[in-house]
Amino acid sequence: MKDFKNKKVLVTGASSGIGLAMAKDFAERGASLILTARSEDKLKDLATELNKNGTETHIFLEDISKPDSARKLYDQVKEAGLEVDILVNNAGYGRWGTFDECPMEDYENMVHLNITSLTELSYLFLEDMEKKASGGIINIASVAAFYSIPYSAVYAATKAYVLSLSEALNFEYARKGIHIMAVCPGATESRFVEVATVSSERLQKRLSGMMDANKKDVQSAEDCSREALDAFLNGKIYTITGKNNRNLYSFSRLFSRKTLLNTVGRRFKKISG
Question: Backbone dihedral region of 81: left (phi > 0), alpha (psi from -120 to 50 degrees) or beta?
Fold first, then answer.
């Protein structure tokens, strides 16, 4: 795939953060868009903006953290007569704190969104892509996919799944003309901290403080999107966005998993403790 001109791109979680930035980036690069999120007002505002700029845009209001929502979204897209060339599985969230601080129901919703819906949407749209021997999937993982992250254990584990799945599926489908890539952002300007610490004002202040103290390491959603789409066009299987994140990953490979676990654990214990 050389560019995105005249490609139909489906972006989940398109109303804010990386999803919003990617929707606008795809539009600037000539794609038409199929957008989904939970926020109807934000989706409508985005569609109005993109349509005004000449981008064909379709919106579907769907909360894909719910059971059967992925199939429902797929059916709505098909019933509208739309063919998806590129699927962007962006919707996802995390939680921060000790493992037992978060209700089990919340973990179930997180796993359903970050893993189950992503897998099901990939499964459904890959069948269509296979028939025409072309297409692509961009899955938003995280640099957390490479590490065990105490105090965000479930989130990190879901992102490790996303990275592993993406690499394996790309091996299976590359010979069929389908490119699958994982994007691994680090700290990015988004609502992640707000959502991850929704149950604790104390944690929100501490984590926000850490982000503010390291602003130079926080990447804009727009820069993350630009790097991700460039990497996809260059045939990458996964990409770590942000120079600091790439440097940190390269440096971390010098140490054992046990050493990394202890280092990360001690740092984040100060925030959660």
Answer: left
Q: Which two tokens stand for residue 85?
A: 């060339």
- Is position 2 within any domain? no
d(CA 84, CA 177): 14
Q: Rounded CA gap, 20 and 221, in Å?
A: 8
pLDDT digits (tens, 9 = 90+) for 10-40: 999 999 999 999 999 999 999 999 999 998 9
- CA distance linking residue 153 with residue 32, whole number of Å: 37
Domain membership flag for residue 1: no
Neighbours of 249 (CB within 10 A): 16
Helix (H), strand (E), coil (C) string for 152-189: CHHHHHHHHHHHHHHHHHHHHHHHHCEEEEEEECCCEC
CA–CA distance, 17 with 185 (Å, rounded to integer)? 12
How far apart are the C-alpha atoms of 267 and 272, rounded to whole Å? 9
Tell me, yes or no, whether 3 lies in a domain: no
Per the residue annotation, which of 74, 93, 147, 155 is the catalytic one?
155
- The structural domain count of the chain equals 1
State pLDDT tens for residues 177-197: 999 999 999 988 755 544 444
Residue 51, domain member (yes or no)? yes
Task: Please give the residue range of the domain that contains residue 260.
Answer: 8-272
Which CATH number characterizes residue 258's domain? 3.40.50.720
Query: Any catalytic annotation for residue 155?
Result: yes
